[in-house]
Amino acid sequence: MKRGRVKRLVFGSSGTIAGTVYGTIVVMATVTAGAHGKETDAGRLAVVVGVTSLVFWAAHVYSDALAESLERGRRLDLAELADVARRELSIPAAAVAPVAALVLGALGVLGVQTALWLAVGIGVATLGVQGARYAALEQLDRTATVAVIAVNLCLGLVIVGLKALLAH
Question: Strand, coil or helix: what is 89?
Fold first, then answer.
């Protein structure tokens, strides 16, 4: 695999930032809403997070396909629909690492609370990284870069705050 393909697979492209941020927020909100303190079933929550991410991905594919059909004045063919689906893959991809953390909790490799916090922490880190990616692609100065990262982190920290509030 060429170096450019590996970099795009790991870090995404400029077109994946929005989907990654959106998918991460969906994942963090689902983890927060589905966590029930010490009674949390990490395996069940992993399934719920994964399915929720896929449902939101399908909804985005559907709505974007409708919009493109209207723009083009015709229905999309299968190849065009597949292209829309590929463009939106960053939404469910954002769930992979947090779901993996939850699965580790379900398998007993991690404690359930550790797995929950790890899943949320991965989300916060992802939001920070996506803010930095956006700033780099836009060639923002240091102040604007810090501001963009701070806004993304604030989104994540609000969700962390809700998790902490709901867990106690």
Answer: coil
In a domain, 83, yes or no: yes
Q: Which residue shows structure tokens 């997070």?
A: 49
Are 116 and 102 in contact by the 8 Å Cβ rule? The answer is yes
| 5 domain-assigned | no
Q: What is the pTM of this model?
A: 0.83
Of 94, 93, 117, the closest CA to residue 105 belongs to: 117
**Average confidence (pLDDT) over 41-52:** 96
CA distance 31 to 48: 9
Domains held by the chain: number: 1
- Residue of 50, 58, 54 lying closest to 81 (CA atoms): 58
| Structural domain boundaries, residue 65 | 19-167
Q: How confident is the model at residue 32 (pLDDT cuts 50, 70, 90)?
A: confident
**pLDDT at 36 (0 to 100):** 82
Give the span between the Cα atoms of 149 and 10, in whole angstroms.
20
Contacts of 6 (CB under 8 A, 6+ apart): none
The pLDDT assigned to 126 comes to 92
Q: What is the percent of the chain with per-residue pLDDT over 90, rounded to a whole number?
A: 68
Whether 8 maps to a domain, the answer reads: no
What pLDDT does residue 160 have? 74
Q: Report if residue 13 sits inside a domain.
A: no
